[in-house]
Amino acid sequence: MATLTIWSESGGVGKTTTALNLAAALGRDEYEVLVVDFDPQPASLTDHAGYTKRKKADREATIVDALLDEEISVTDVRIEDELFDLVPAHESLASLESTVRAEQISMAEFLLRSALEPVESEYDFILIDPPATLNLLVDNALIASGNVLIPVEMTRKGERSAEGVIETVEALERQLQRAQPEFTLNVVGVLPNKVSGSTLNREVRTSLQESDIELLPVTVPDYNVLEQAWNAQLDIFRFADHDEHGLRPYQEQLPEVYRALADSVIERMETESATRQVSVE
């Protein structure tokens, strides 16, 4: 089982679109996948996947209950979808930080990790999609996964964002190692996203590579069909197969892009896992 957080400090870079389509690609390859939407904002993965009503439901258990109530588990709140299972976000996640302070809950950064432990054996992959803003939710996601994939636009803002995320991950790793010396946070890679092939895109790519920031060998093009799929509440695979939608010839590479992303993530996480085992031995 491998757990991965998809995160960027900047909004609008395709973080949630990446999480959904990566989950769909893994599901299409018959991996057992759980997606945890950990973002209370209105436009989150729960909405993209078509379960908007679950974010406001007040008569059902939510992800917050699974975090704070020992009698409620992730299995009580997850949704079984065709390609993956989903733990939907809920608007009450926005007040989680104030709740744990008011109730004086210790080790609040480990709530998600504890909640996921009972179901880890059921899945090959767990993907976590937290908000872009650095807060308790992001800390929980990174600690629960130990791995992070960083989608960035090939712009100057994206370049600074990639550097900032890596610095944040390294700082959090150092902080946690004071209590758990063996703890590591692994940057699986930086994903060039929304790439148009412009001169600026190429310059930023070169600049990142010269900064020793490891880019994944996958590039997601800037196609508006991804926004159309979002509006239709479908991943790109089901959008392509849908009778009312479909892809134009120049867009037909998109599903293969996300399959290539899945392959790259699998390879890098397996390599990292093997490296950790060797270092422990």
From TrEMBL:
Q: What is this protein called?
A: ATPase involved in chromosome partitioning-like protein
From which residue to which does any coiled coil extend? none
**Organism encoding this protein:** Natronococcus amylolyticus DSM 10524
Q: Which InterPro entries match?
A: AAA_dom, DNA_Partitioning_ATPase, P-loop_NTPase
Q: Which residues form the AAA domain?
A: 3-177
